[in-house]
Design a protein that fits this description.
Length: 197
């Protein structure tokens, strides 16, 4: 269930068709993942909504996304951290990163910086982050990602494969971790140093 009405508003305000290959425009509002090239997919709208709700985004937050893909998820998150927020999104396929930048400019998501590289190691130069979101399935929340999370920060992402479990962890002020299992889901695998390579 999506609790934050701002998530629903963000879904309404960002045109998903702009993030899809043009041949798929008429399917833009089907609630399912769609291929965006390079064997990757744009997540289904309901999964994006569940993840954005679970992230508990607020205006002004600093956010890291691992797996830019089309940029759709980043565009929605940008609405939720506006004004004053910054989102760094890492994509390891350069072609997708370039396309995502164009898509994000087209919807005016100026809060987002897309960087090309291995996001399995996070993006230390913009850390710390209030929120970290993985949009591909990881073996675990790797130490470099946890190190880049602010105190009281939240990290969310699918862990494991076939199926993955959507998992949320929060670093509390005393340094301990609270981890929650939010259910089964299906995602493409994280590549790179801390991925499934
Ligand atoms: N959030 C995207 C969907 C992402 S699909 C959207 O809204 O469209 C997952 C993405 O993670 C793919 O584009 C894949 O190329 C990327 N990915 C996989 N391993 C990665 C890594 N180590 N670093 C950065 N991106 C990675």
């Amino acid at each position: 269930m999506v609790r934050d009405p701002r998530v629903v508003e963000a879904l309404r305000s960002v045109p998903r068709e702009l993030f899809l290959p043009s041949a798929w425009s008429e399917h833009a509002y089907d609630d399912r993942p769609i291929g965006i090239g390079h064997g990757q997919t744009i997540s289904a709208p309901h999964m994006v909504a569940i993840m954005l709700d679970a992230l508990q985004l607020e205006p002004g937050q600093r956010v890291l996304e691992v797996g830019t893909g089309s940029g759709y998820h980043a565009a929605l998150a940008a609405r939720l951290i506006h004004p004053g927020g910054r989102l760094t999104s890492v994509e390891n396929v350069e072609d997708l990163a370039r396309q995502a930048r164009e898509n994000l400019i087209a919807v005016g998501a100026t809060e987002v910086t897309v960087v090309a590289g291995d996001g399995s190691q996070g993006w230390p130069s913009h850390a710390p982050y209030d929120r970290i979101c993985l949009t591909c399935a990881a073996p675990r929340f790797a130490p470099p990602l946890l190190d880049q999370l602010a105190t009281d920060g939240v990290i969310l992402g699918p862990l494991g494969l076939d199926p993955s479990r959507l998992t949320r962890a929060r670093r509390s002020t005393d340094g301990s971790w609270i981890e929650e299992d939010l259910g089964a889901c299906a995602f493409v695998p994280l590549r790179g140093k801390f991925g499934f390579d």
